Structure formats: C-alpha cells, structure tokens
Amino acid sequence: MKSVYIRAFSYIFGLMIVSFGVTLTILAGLGAGAWDALNVGLSHMTPFSVGNWVIFVGIILIIINSLLTKSKPVFVSLITILILGYFIDFWLLIVFPDTLVNGFFYQMATLLVGVVVLACGASMYMQAKFALIPIDGLMFALRDVLGVKIMVAKTISEVTALAAAFFVGGPIGIGTLIVTFAIGPLIQWFYPRFEKRLNWKAV
C-alpha cells in the first residue's frame, strides 16, 4: 500500500516540477522547447491559455498515436496532460503573471535552471510508470511504425513540432536548441538517482 502512495507522489509532484521547468524556459524569453513553443504560439493566436493548448495538443496526439499504432487511444494519458496543463497555467497566470526576465545573463540563468528542473521533474514522474505524456507516446509510436531508433523517432517528433511552432509564431531561439539537446542527457542522469531514492518496489 505504501508503494502506491510513493508512486502517486512521484507522479503528481513530478508533473508539478515539470510544469515549473517549462514555465521557466518560457519566461526566459530565449526560445522554449519545440512543443512548448508551439503551445505558446497557439496561445498568442487564440483566446486559450498555454495550459489549455497543452491539453488540446495532447488530445490530438493521443488520437494520432492511436492511429499510428492501430490501437485503442490511451485515454489515461488525459490525466497527465490535464495535470500538466493546469499546473503550467498556475505558474504562468497566477504565480508569474506578466513576468518578463530582462538581461541576457538572467535570461540564460533562468533558462538553464528551467531545463534542469524540467529534467528533474520528468525523471520523477516517470518513476510512477503510470501514464506517459502524449508527446512521449508519439516518440514510441514513431519508433514502432517507422522501425527506427528511439533518438531518430524523438528527432522526427521534435522537428515536426518545431516546424509547427515556427508556423504559428512560437518562441524559437537558442533556448530551443538548449532544451532539445540537453533534456535527454539530463533525464538520463537524474532517472537512476530518483529510481534509487524512490524504490517503491522495495517498500
């Protein structure tokens, strides 16, 4: 029973940390990750918030993943995107409304902290092994359908999101490159450390 609580904590708290990391990369103003840039761009074009678009895009990806894999939609992933979307809006609209980081040094510092926090949260939420973010689901779906390595599938996914973000005027810049290339190695570093500390199978 104790393991269930640890998994739930890892899942919810991890997603909260992910949302905070995403928020910092957006507030830095140097360019967000490809999918986040897409959501920000869409929010500027519509009356919907960034968090709303996290949910909308997530639903679309759940459907696309289902079509690609010819399987039933993973509706449990709705829980993940709902939590993530609402947390992102909490940080952006309530905690940091109209916040703008000025000065390249502070912008870069905010961005780098955001990337580390994002990777930390992702490593934690994945420990629960509950419901993946649909973006990660797309990566695995592309891997299986195209028969390519996971990094190739991830690259295809990111490039697609980047093209869409560019089309809708999302924030693309040096920060986008940093997020894209740093997030994987950071998760790889954090994951085994959280796995050891949150060893819910052993409790």
Automatic annotation (TrEMBL):
Pfam family for this entry, one: DUF6198
Keywords from the UniProt entry: Membrane, Transmembrane, Transmembrane helix
InterPro entries xrefs: YczE/YyaS-like (IPR038750)
Key word DNA damage present: no
Transmembrane domains' residue ranges: 12-35, 50-68, 75-97, 103-125, 146-166, 172-191
PANTHER family listed in its UniProt record: INTEGRAL MEMBRANE PROTEIN, INTEGRAL MEMBRANE PROTEIN-RELATED
Protein name, UniProt field: YitT family protein
Gene source species: Halalkalibacter okhensis
